Amino acid sequence: MKVLVAGSHGKVGRHLVRLLAEAGHEAMAMIRDDSQALEVESFGGTPVVADLEGDPAPAAEGSDAIIFTAGGGPGSGAAKKETIDRQGAIKLIEAAKDYGIRRYVMVSAMGADDPESGPEGMRPYLKAKGQADDALRESGLDYTIVRPGRLTDDPAAGRVDAATSLGRRGEITREDTARVLVATLTANTHGKTFEVLAGDTPIEEAINGL
Ligand SMILES: NC(=O)c1ccc[n+]([C@@H]2O[C@H](COP(=O)([O-])OP(=O)(O)OC[C@H]3O[C@@H](n4cnc5c(N)ncnc54)[C@H](OP(=O)(O)O)[C@@H]3O)[C@@H](O)[C@H]2O)c1
Q: How far, in Å, from the CA of 72 to the mean position of ligand 1?
């Protein structure tokens, strides 16, 4: 499958590009800057330069699926949450519709359905994520919304807990998150929204059991 990865140069994105390539997919690695091209090629990606704050749509042409794992990042303010996390994700939803790309996997976040329940500083982020998720649910695309807990850079454990609602908060490694995304792409998770944390079940089994 030819998969456009928005956020391919990010911490989850790097794992994701490598794992997609290892699984035999063609990872179209969206980068903002030509200088990142060699790096994403070294993970197994095909670089495609596009800016989510500009017009990223042409980067999607010819793909079979889009995985959105971009973001303004923890150091950015509410304006970036709006232009990248919300509007950037929605621009690629519109591009998917225009180019007939049916499959869209969104990296959302736990708490995105209820931003007011989060700490004040997180609310603009959670609100942007929640609105992007709503737009995806209403898009008519074959979507899956993946909501990890707090991301860590620990080594992958290969085991997770995944469910519509886990009833707890916690952590998951970025590499396990990327593994979940690869499994989600081809598993029957169409139209599903689920939370995922470090846990006990092998990733494929957890995703196929949703
Ligand atoms: N941190 C957490 O605990 C947590 C929890 C749940 C969900 N999430 C979500 O998980 C996802 C991955 O997180 P992460 O830690 O891998 O994030 P990250 O390392 O900050 O990566 C974000 C990526 O988005 C890219 N990006 C930013 N602005 C862009 C623009 N205008 N156009 C194109 N690309 C742009 C960045 O590009 P550059 O490399 O050029 O900067 C970077 O590659 C994000 O959606 C995040 O919101 C995070």
A: 6
What CATH architecture is 2-208? 3-Layer(aba) Sandwich (3.40)
Instruction: Tell me how far apart the alpha carbons of residues 148 and 138 are, in angstroms, rounded to a whole number.
Output: 21
User: How many other CB atoms are there within 10 angstroms of residue 167's CB atom?
Assistant: 6
pTM score, whole prediction: 0.98
Strand (E) or helix (H) holding 201:
strand 201-202
- Is the CB of 45 inside a 6 Å radius of any atom of ligand 1? no
For ligand 1, atom 20: residue with the closest CA: 73
DSSP string across 11-76: HHHHHHHHHHHHTT-EEEEEESSGGGHHHHHHTT-EEEE--TTS--GGGGTT-SEEEE-----TT-
Ligand 1 binding pocket includes 111 (Cβ within 6 Å)? no
Q: Which residues pair with 105 in a beta bridge?
A: 67, 144
pLDDT band at 39 (very low <50, low <70, confident <90, very high): very high
Per domain, the residue ranges of the chain are: 2-208
Mean pLDDT to the nearest integer, 82-93: 98
What is the residue whose two structure tokens read 């993970």?
43
Q: Is the pLDDT of residue 102 over 90?
A: yes
pLDDT value of residue 75: 87
Using a 10 angstrom Cβ sphere, with 0-12 exposed, 13-18 middle and 19 or more buried, the burial of residue 121 is exposed
